[in-house]
Write a structure and sequence with these properties.
The structure is a single chain. With 330 residues, this protein is mainly alpha-helical. The protein has two domains: 5-191 and 298-326, HUPs (Rossmann fold, 3-Layer(aba) Sandwich), CATH 3.40.50; 211-286, Tyrosyl-Transfer RNA Synthetase (Orthogonal Bundle), CATH 1.10.240. It has 15 helices and five strands. A three-stranded parallel beta sheet has the order 1-2-3. Strands 4-5 form a two-stranded parallel sheet.
């Protein structure tokens, strides 16, 4: 293994939007040329809060894989698979849960927050599976002896728990079976929703990652601008304009001139957003082409996932042989 190994995963929980892409997937595409990468579609994790109705899960998995391929994740460079198709994830999760103190799981900061938030949405998540979410996350990572995990700050407590579990296991069974994973912090671009709030499916303010050029233009047209501007000649305030935040991310070459013209009342909001829309269409053109290549080829997607699972199982089983040996389960 000449490069450091990365493991990361996403839950297949619905339609992907542009904020999801810029928050994680864009970074994954960059990392695939620098690291030995393993990426999983975490369908088992999805069950921790969506266990009551799993009918949409196969479609979500297909759509997520299509999004990943469209974004530029290369199955020739990475191992990409569906989590439940590598049974060693479930086995290791079970074994780690036998020696992890309950208090460690209960003190994870996100546990009570999510318990409250999802409970408010009418979901019954007072389950062992939900409490053990970070334990399963630990199993996912250490199963492949990944040294690095691309995370945001909100995932740091989960990663620290993973390191504590690794230290406890290695000390308890007298062998350095697992590697302590480290966080690989990424400066992901934060993209607001078209109404200025956090981009979220529940708010209905997203820009779909799979949007066609025409749909993309329509969503950009709906982005809110400076509420104080009525006429084109009114002097604008870009710092309060949601469209201007998009300009800074997608139109770096012209953003300074656009800011100047806005403040001086030389460009209207309609023209500004039209210019933004074309920049965004150009930026996503290659992704749109890749999507068309796989759009009507579900068998190709299944083939990629099957091959990824085969490769993942080889690595995972080698680790599990060590685990079973030190736990005298061989």
């Amino acid at each position: 293994m000449s490069k450091g190994r990365i493991f990361s995963a996403m839950q297949p929980s619905g339609k992907f939007h542009l904020g999801n892409y810029m928050g994680a997937l864009e970074n994954w595409v960059k990392l695939q040329d620098e690291y030995d990468c393993i990426f999983a579609i975490a369908d088992l994790h999805a069950l921790t809060s969506a266990y009551a109705d799993t009918s949409k899960l196969p479609g979500f998995i297909h759509d997520m894989m299509l999004d990943w391929l469209s974004a530029g994740l290369d199955p020739e460079k990475n191992i990409i698979f569906v989590q439940s198709q590598v049974k060693q994830h479930a086995e290791l999760h079970l074994l780690l849960s036998m020696m992890t103190p309950l208090s460690w799981l209960e003190r994870v900061p996100t546990y009570k927050d999510k318990l409250q938030n999802l409970g408010d949405q009418g979901k019954d998540i007072n389950t062992y599976g939900f409490l053990g979410y970070p334990e399963l996350m630990t199993a996912d990572i250490v199963l492949y002896k990944a040294g690095w995990v691309p995370v945001g700050e909100d995932q740091n407590p989960h990663l620290e728990l993973a390191r504590e579990i690794v230290r406890r296991f290695n000390l308890m069974y007298g062998k350095e079976v697992f590697v302590e994973p480290q966080g690989l912090m990424s400066r992901a671009a934060v993209l607001p929703g078209i109404d200025g709030r956090k981009m979220s499916k529940s708010y209905g303010n997203t820009i779909p990652f799979a949007a066609s050029p025409d749909e993309l233009r329509e969503r950009v047209r709906m982005i809110v601008t400076d509420p104080a501007r009525i006429k084109k000649t009114d002097k604008g305030h870009p710092e309060v304009c949601v469209a201007f935040k998009f300009q800074k991310l997608f139109n770096a070459d012209e953003v300074e001139q656009i800011e100047k013209d806005c403040r001086e009342g030389c460009i209207g909001c309609v023209a500004c957003k039209k210019r933004l829309a074309e920049k965004m269409v150009d930026a996503m053109a290659d992704m749109h082409v890749r999507r068309q290549e796989y759009q009507d080829k579900p068998e190709k997607i299944r083939e990629i996932l099957d091959e990824g699972a085969k490769k993942a199982r080889v690595i995972a089983e080698k680790t599990m042989e060590e685990v079973r040996e030190v736990m005298h389960l061989a």
